Amino acid sequence: MSETTSTNEKPPLNGRRALPPNNSNDEENEVPEVDPFGLIPRGFNPKDYLRVVDIYMFKDPHEINKQQHHTDKYYNPKLIVRRGQPFQIQIDFNRPYRPETDQFWLEYLMGRYPQQNKGTYIPILVGNVLKPGEWGAKITHRENNSVRLSIMPSATCIIGKFRLYVAVWTPFAILRTRRDPATDTYILFNPWCQQDAVYLDDEKEREEYVLNDVGIVFHGNTEEIKSRSWSYGQFEENILDACLFLMDKAELELSGRGNPIKICRVASAVINSRDDNGVIAGSWNNSYDYGVAPSAWTGSVDILLEYYSSKQPVRYGQCWVFAGVFNTFLRCLGIPARLITNYSSAHDNNANLRLDFFLDDEGKVDTKLTKDSVWNYHCWNEAWMTRPDLPVGFGGWQVVDGTPQETSDGMYRCGPASVQAIKHGHVCFQFDAPFVYAEVNSDIFYSRMEKNGTQVIEKIDTTHIGQLIVTKEVGSDGMKDITEEYKFREGSDEERLALETAVMYGVKKQTTRDTTYQPQTDIDMDFQVQKAVLGNDFKVTITFRNRSRNTYTATTYLSGNIVFYTGVTRSEFKKHSFSAKLQPSSSSSFDVVIKASEYMSDLLEQASFHFFVTARINETGKILAMQKATILEIPTLRIKTKGELVAGKEMSVIVEFTNPLKQTLENVTLRLEGPGLLRTVKKDFRSIPMNSTLTWEVKFTPMRPGLRKLIASLNSHALRHVYGELNVQIQKP
């Protein structure tokens, strides 16, 4: 009977490999406590030999290991260290250790099938000297029955959770310590170590891109840049385990987990739920039944913990949610990372560096023919690492994107793509550089189909796409413009050269030779949208400048659309046409009033409008075209504190909101969180009548002193993207 049970436990045979894939950090193997060399003689008693009584890990936040390894913020009781940098442990034996006769060594194991050549079984002999960046151990102190060891993990070792055993040699068997989860050791990437692939040489940048657990998401559009805080929470309880689980979910072999390129590539696929049941399900259609609206999330922690426990995609996300969670994952594992916003981001379905907007005879956009779209903004991430797989000079910041847009090698993922390679047009280097290049460099073509099937290009806009690329400043909440890191100045020789290089490497760039393009050059048209608060009327002003000596008449058409921030139209709420008389050598302006009653019923969560203005010059038949996105001002939440702000003392936070709409808000949800202060709390309100104010008080006890941030969001069907935040300084008791 015993024979059958043992054969049942064997993994299923596979003709291609002797061992099954080792891609779970969680699974374990049985490690024998007594490993005999052969027959053990009768009188052998393990207790006669050196025996480990206790192992002390120095794993508390205030102790040497977590302090030196910058891991003291992790809310995790186990030892967490970074690779390529020594850490200390102490072993207590049953008697004093005698180096002349006693022999012991350490064993670090990961996964169910540990193997030395895969880096998942690491035996470490105790030597006299530590070599930088290589596995080793040396005794630094001996006292009574104890020895203090300094252990150096390799600067290229795999990252994750290792199990520790201490093995003692005796003449007849190896004696090992019993499996003890308390001695588990997490090893992470080390941006402080020069030999690590993620080494970053600036201390302020390391504090921002690795250790800061709050960030800023820039959204809105170039005319009106908006920002909101996002709690990354990479140090919160269970987040480290949740991030390691993501690599298990992506089935990344344990042996590949020392390579940040591989980790980023698989993570960009597993962050979204398309094709692998990953973390977040995207939804861009404004109905979020059975889930949380993307705008309601205030940070990554709730999303990652829900996924870790349910193993099912969390609903719902849009680009900044994917990017926020991805940033938490990268920073948690020790890879420097930042969240990027690209304003007027091209989603070019066939990556030909050209977005086609087709106009009908009247000059209106033909929505059936037009497949490409301009996102008001799109968020992705950059991760910092060397790229030994590319020629020299393409390391540094790499674009990674977890938002599912297009497939790459058969899965919804994107990156890592070198920012430097994108700037210089070297899009031949892996991964997905042509797609990112198109997101920041496409041109917009407005064209019209003639009755005989020829395509007439009415206007080419070369400056609209990727006009501003930003991230949070290091050490402050300000905005840093990094457009120059992605592209040369518009119209410069270097920009042309980068484009020619990209085309040479296979980015499709259609020429205008096969189509006729003769724009009207002696008239300029522009329009401005008045800044407006949600629920109010506002106006659009269209200006013509006639630089010729002729009098022209322009049949002008304005189309106002309510759009998703991805530039996809939900509905046209305003159509207005008029005839404009343009006198020679003069400018003329025309106002179109937009009433609140025209847009309020269809408004989407980002309160985002898209205006197309087209004008046909009757005397020449030429068309002028222009488009702009605009956003309404959305009211904010007010946050204030009550009571003393002292660690260990109860305090209160009060969130207030006044309903500015001319209607009652139904089914309102408020969320409040503060990384390192309080876990997300939420409260539902049935309704808030117009002009009335809602007040919500939350009591809690902050545990740690320091500067912290409170972030709140309000969400309802009629009103989304309402945020508030407050910096609080918690004093020492």
UniProtKB/TrEMBL annotation:
Q: Which GO terms describe its cellular component?
A: cytoplasm; extracellular region
Binding note for cofactor: Binds 1 Ca(2+) ion per subunit.
Q: For the region Disordered, what residue ranges are annotated?
A: 1-37
Write out the annotated subcellular location. Answer: Cytoplasm; Secreted
- What Pfam families is this protein classified in? Transglut_C, Transglut_core, Transglut_N
Q: Which GO terms describe its molecular function?
A: metal ion binding; protein-glutamine gamma-glutamyltransferase activity
The answer to keyword Plastid applying to this record is no
Q: What is its EC number?
A: 2.3.2.13
For activity, the cofactor(s) needed are: Ca(2+)
Query: Its Gene Ontology biological processes?
Result: blood coagulation, fibrin clot formation
Active-site residues (renumbered): C319, H378, D401
Q: Which PROSITE patterns match?
A: TRANSGLUTAMINASES
Listed under subunit, the entry gives: Tetramer of two A chains (F13A1) and two B (F13B) chains.
Query: Could you tell me what this protein does?
Result: Factor XIII is activated by thrombin and calcium ion to a transglutaminase that catalyzes the formation of gamma-glutamyl-epsilon-lysine cross-links between fibrin chains, thus stabilizing the fibrin clot. Also cross-link alpha-2-plasmin inhibitor, or fibronectin, to the alpha chains of fibrin.
Quote the protein name from its UniProt record. Coagulation factor XIII A chain
